C-alpha cells in the first residue's frame, strides 16, 4: 500500500505532508509520556520489529498473499503515539533507503498507514476493550480493531484520490474495490494481530500497553507469611493541555486555506454541477451578502482566494475560541477541586 | 552481531555524487521529485529530459543501469494498478487491438508510470550513493527532530539483527517441516510475531540500560560536524535546477 510519486497532485501531496508533520509532532510529545526517557531506543527497536513484521506474508486466498501493516498491532503493544512514530520511521526509511513509496507521497503514506490506521485501530480497540473486561475481550478487540483499520486506511486513500488523484475514476467503484480487497487483507491482519497479542499476553502481560488495566496487583509476602499489597497510586488521567494543539491546528488550517486553496479546482462542485445539469441552478437566489468584498471566497471583491481563506480561518477561529471560553468558564469550578488533589500528590 | 550490516542498496564509491554532503543530496532529490510531480502529464518531452538527467547522474555516480533496474521491482504493485486504469477509466474511448480503452485512463496510466518511475530512480540513486548513517546525519542537519533521527538510527542499527532473528525462527519452523500454506497456519506465524516482539522489546530494554551505564542523557553525541559549502549546494542543485529549466522550457514551447 506504499503510494509512489505521481498518484496525487502537488496540492494534496503538500497538505498531506503538513498533516503528517503535525501528527508526528503531536506523537513525539505523546510518546515521551508512554515511554519516558526510554523513547529513542525502545521506539527504535519496536520500529525494527514493525519492519520485520511487514515481511511476514500470510496467505489470503488461493495464490495471493498479503503482508501485515502492523499499525494496530504496534498501537496495542506499545501505545498509539509510539506506534505512529514507529510507522512514520518505517515509512521514512522505506522511502529514502529502499525507494519504497514516493518522496512526494511520503506525507500521504504517513497519513494513511500511520495516522489513519493507528487512530482508527486504537479507537476501535479502546471502545471494545473498555466495554468488556478480561483477556478474551482484549484479544477480540485486537481482532476487530486490526480488521477495521486496514479498510479504513484504504478508504482514506480513496477519499484522497478523489480529492486530488491524477486519474479519472468513479469514487464509488474504487471505494468498493479498495474496501473489498482490503477487508480480506484486514481479516488476515486481524487474525495475526489477535493471536500475537494473546501470545504476548500469555508470556509477558506487562508488555501489552492496551491491557495495562488487567495486570494483577503486586503482592509482597515477607518471612512471617504476612501479605501486603503496596498501594499503587491509580493513574489519574492527566488534564488535557490544549496549549500546543491550538497553534498546530491554526498552522494547518491557515496552510490549507492560504496556500492549497490556490490549487483548488474552480469548476463547479458536485451540487452545483448536478444543479446546472438538471437546470435548477437558476432557481438559486443570490445570497443576501453577495455584494460584500469577501463573497464567493474573494472573487467579488478582487481579494486573492488565499487571503480570503486566511480571513475565513481567522474569523472562524475567533468565534470558536469565544465559544470555547464561554463553555469553559461554566465548568471551571469542577476543575479547581481536581487540581488541588493533583497538587497534594505531586 | 557485529557482522551483517550489509545494506545491499548502498554502492561504495568515491565520485562527485558520493562526496556531496548528505543534506544537499536529500534536498536535491526531494526538489527533483516535486518538479516531476508538478509537471503536466501531456508534456512528454519534459519527462524525457528528466530521464536523461537521471541517466547522466547515474553515469557520474558510476551506478550501473542494471542495478537501478533491479531495484525498481518495488514499483510493480502500482504498475498493475496503472495498467488497469485504461480499462476501468471512463470518458472517450479508443479501440486498440479490439478492446476499447479509455483515453483519459491511458493518460492517467502514463502519468502515474512516468512520475512513479522517475521518483523511484531518483530515490535509488540517492540510496546507492549515500551511506544510511550519513543520510541520518544529513536529516539532522536539516532540522528533523533529533528524537526522530535517534529512533531511525536505532531502527537501522537493529533492523538487521531483528530480521536475522526472524530468519532464524523461520529456519527453525521449516526444519520442523512447517510451511505456511493456508489460513489455518496463521496462528503459528502470529506466535512467531509475538515471540519476535518480546525479543525486540527486551533487547530494547537491555540496549537502554547499556546506554545509561555509558552516560546517555537523551542526546546522541555528534562526532564531526557536517557542513556544506556554497559550491556543494550549487553542485547538488544542478539536478533539480536542470529539471526546473526543462519544465519552464517546455512551458515556453507549448504556450
Q: Give helix % range of chain B.
A: 55-70%
Q: Poorly predicted ranges of chain B (pLDDT <50, ≥5 residues)?
A: 1-6
* C-alpha termini separation of chain B: 60 Å
Q: Which series of helices and strands of chain A comes N to C? A: HHEEHHHHHEEHHH
Strand order of the largest sheet of chain B: 1-2
Q: If you average the pLDDT of chain B, what whole number results? A: 84
Instruction: Give the largest chain-chain interface (CB within 8 Å).
Output: A-B, 74 and 86 residues
**Overall shape of chain B:** flat
Q: Quick one: biggest sheet of chain B? A: 2 strands, antiparallel
Separation, N- and C-terminal Cα atoms of chain A: 46 Å
> Helix/strand-derived class of chain B?
mainly alpha
What is the total number of structural domains of chain B?
2
| Number of separate strands of chain B | 2
Coarse morphology of chain A: globular
| Cα-based radius of gyration of chain B, to the nearest Å | 23 Å
User: How many extended strands of chain A?
Assistant: 4
Sheet of most strands of chain A: 2 strands, antiparallel
Describe this structure in words.
The complex is a heterodimer of chains A (346) and B (255). By secondary structure, chain A is mainly alpha-helical. Chain A folds into 2 domains: 10-214, Arp2/3 complex 21 kDa subunit ARPC3; 245-335, no CATH class. Helices cover 64% and strands 4% of the residues of chain A. Chain A has helices at 10-35, 39-53, 71-78, 80-97, 106-131, 135-164, 171-203, 245-258, 270-278, 305-345; strands spanning 57-61, 64-67, 220-221, 227-228. In chain A, helix 3 packs across helix 5. The longest helix of chain A has 41 residues, at 305-345. Chain A is globular, with a radius of gyration of 24 Å. Chain A starts with 9 loop residues before the first helix and ends with a helix. The model of chain A is unreliable at 233-242, 265-270 and 329-346 (pLDDT under 50). A two-stranded antiparallel ribbon of chain B has the order 1-2. Chain B has 11 helices and 2 strands; from the N terminus they run αααααββαααααα. Chain B starts with 15 loop residues before the first helix and ends with a helix. Chain B folds into 2 domains: 16-138 and 226-254, no CATH class; 144-213, no CATH class. The relative contact order of chain B is 0.16. In chain B, helix 2 packs parallel to helix 11 and helix 3 runs parallel beside helix 6. With 255 residues, chain B is mainly alpha-helical. The radius of gyration of chain B is 23 Å and the shape is flat. Helix content of chain B is 69%, strand content 3%. At the A-B interface, helix 1, helix 2, strand 1, helix 3 and helix 4 of A face helix 2, helix 5, helix 6, helix 8 and helix 9 of B.
